Amino acid sequence: xPGESGLHRLDRWLYQDGRPNRVARLLNRISAIQxxxxxxxxxxxxxxxxxxxTGRLISFPVVVANYEGERxxxxxxxxxxxxxxxxxxxxxxxxxxxxxxxxxxxDEVDPDDRAPILRVYLQRAPGARAHIPxxxxxxxxxxxxxxxxxxxxxxTRPAGNGVDHP
Length: 166
What we know:
six-stranded antiparallel barrel, globular, 5 helices
């Protein structure tokens, strides 16, 4: 893209075709260790969810967007992100880690309600800016136009929340 920063070009290269390449997978593993330990900003966490085919626990670093007192996860790679398909198959059951384990439920947000959350997310997740085709300072109308392409999940704590894995 014309005028695109070198960092954005790198981010796009790491996730060509919406999938992480080998370097991105390695960096994600390193980030997951850092995020889970609590040595990162509070809104950088690790998402643990059961794999839809293997049943194994899959861990992935993500950024939590806080909007109007609620927490959300956004799929910067869109509908085909592996973690999105796993969360859907797990009926929203997951664990977030950032120094401790938090059992959560992830409920998908209607596309009509995603625009303001996407804007907040882009302000908090610089690495996502190369993947979501709207400037972080754009009006909400621009976010609304692309909202159906980027799943957003509302994070809630199920009754009796413990430290179990999904």
